[in-house]
Amino acid sequence: MGKSSESDELRMDCVTRFIGTLNQARALGLSAVEASKNRLILCLPYSDLIIGNPDTGVIHGGAITTLMDTASGSVILCALDDFELCPTLDLRVDYMRPAEPHKPVYARAEAYKITRNIIFTRCQAYQDGGETIANCVGTFMRIGAEASPKAYRDLISGKTK
Amino acid sequence: MTDLEIIRYTRESGDFSRMLESIPYAGWIGVTCERFGDDLIFRLPAKEQNLGNPILPAIHGGVIGGFMEISAAIYLMMSQESMRMPRIVDFSLDYLRAGLNRESYAECRLTRQGNRVANVIITAWQKSRSEPIAIARAHFLLED
Q1: Which CATH architecture has domain A6-157?
Q2: Which of B28, B87, B90 is closest, CB to CB, to A50?
Q3: Backbone phi, then psi, for B79, in 5-degree steps?
Q4: Tens digits of residue pLDDT in A15-56
């Protein structure tokens, strides 16, 4: 922790470019905080737009699901040498407690097993100094690099401006 | 209107607009709901902001999840006597097809209701009910 290698910077750039192409991730203001081999942390800023219960100001579980889906899908970029777009097969989300209002939520994702066809991920949503808000496990399908256009792959890997 | 009044109004009128307006996130992704007899059909309009994969393009999986969560919570509240929103405990979501940039629908079924926990199954589709884009199961806590 704390030490950031050159390859981790490349991973951060790659993830930042990738989530920049996802409208919903942009609309939520998701950003990459930390990236390393097989690991990634994303941040979801607090916003009035995504509140689930106006009486408490607690954000809706759906926004947490999107944060964790995005973190779990993007950690794949930190796990594979070449960019592959991998659709989500399934997600299982356990909600431990509501997120505290007016504070960002973070998602720490890990790609813990990579096979020829499937990538297995786990992810934890939490806040500064707080307990776990939600846990999530996911599986993603590897449909191959060629399944997405080369121009898009080059954009994400930073080969084009 | 207080929450209680909104719930009562929605039950009596079948007009879900006020209830959905009271949930900012639901309005933000664009969820609406209509009642047909006892059945509820939830609707998520095509919306650029909800997209994930820009290549297809396809709706972000998290938005589909959020849409199904909202649907299940409202469905559950309408199907029981409770006057408050049930709290979600867990959510298990299988993505079966890409959700394209077009209108999506969801319907729910109460699988089991205990004293404290309810199990709901949610199906989401676009072109045809027989070709769901996602199915999900959720557990809700009915009391504190």
Answers
A1: Roll (3.10)
A2: B28
A3: -90, 0
A4: 999 999 999 999 999 999 999 999 999 999 999 999 999 899
